């Protein structure tokens, strides 16, 4: 699972989906892989407005990557530099969580990750009605 995907996931278990503390999910017991990905400046620039910078930086640091600055650059003031886009590309698209778990910081529901695929399915009693 790429951090690109992780930056879009939140817990939707019963009594948790409306909480403001259900994102970002916390990684536990992970096995990481670095997998090269094709670079696309247009994709990265298009994804910037959808990105939760603080969550991405926090997660990257939790996984041992410090290539992104703590504070989000002011991309409205100046377009991203090539170096900024390369660092973003690396974190979003090349760091893969192959195995492990994601834990909701609010309700502590565990979402397993196997073969790089997060299982976000909920049991029937966990589904909001």
- By DSSP (H or I, 4+ residues per run), the number of helices equals 4
Task: Report the CATH topology name.
Answer: N-terminal domain of TfIIb
Uncertain spans, ≥5 residues at pLDDT below 50?
none
By helix and strand content, what is the structural category? alpha+beta
Counted up, domains total 1
Mean pLDDT: 92
Fraction in helix: 25-40%
> Helices and strands, in N-to-C order?
HEHHHEEE
Rg over CA atoms: 15 Å
Spatial order of the strands forming the largest sheet: 1-2-3-4
Described by strand count, sense and barrel closure, the largest sheet is: 4 strands, antiparallel
Cα end-to-end separation: 29 Å
The portion of residues forming beta strands comes to 15-25%
Brief synopsis:
By secondary structure, the chain is of the alpha+beta class. The chain is 26% helix and 19% strand. Strands 1-2-3-4 form a 4-stranded antiparallel β-sheet.
Can you offer a commentary on this structure?
This protein has a single domain (3-126), classed as Single Sheet (N-terminal domain of TfIIb), CATH 2.20.25.10. It has helices at 3-6, 41-47, 53-62, 82-94; strands at residues 26-34, 95-103, 110-114, 117-118. Helix content is 26%, strand content 19%. It is globular and about 45 Å long. The two termini are 29 Å apart. The mean pLDDT is 92. The chain is of the alpha+beta class and 129 residues long. Strands 1-2-3-4 form a four-stranded antiparallel β-sheet.
């Amino acid at each position: 699972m790429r951090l690109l995907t992780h930056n879009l996931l939140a817990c939707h278990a019963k009594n948790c989906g409306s909480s403001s503390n259900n994102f970002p999910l916390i990684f536990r017991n992970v096995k990481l892989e670095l997998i090269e990905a094709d670079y696309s400046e247009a994709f990265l620039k298009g994804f910037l407005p959808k990105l939760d910078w603080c969550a991405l930086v926090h997660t990257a640091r939790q996984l041992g990557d410090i290539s992104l600055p703590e504070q989000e650059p002011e991309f409205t003031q100046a377009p991203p530099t090539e170096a900024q886009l390369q660092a973003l590309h690396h974190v979003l698209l090349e760091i893969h969580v192959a195995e492990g778990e994601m834990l909701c910081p609010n309700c502590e529901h565990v979402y397993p990750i196997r073969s790089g695929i997060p299982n976000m399915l909920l049991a029937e009693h966990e589904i909001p009605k």
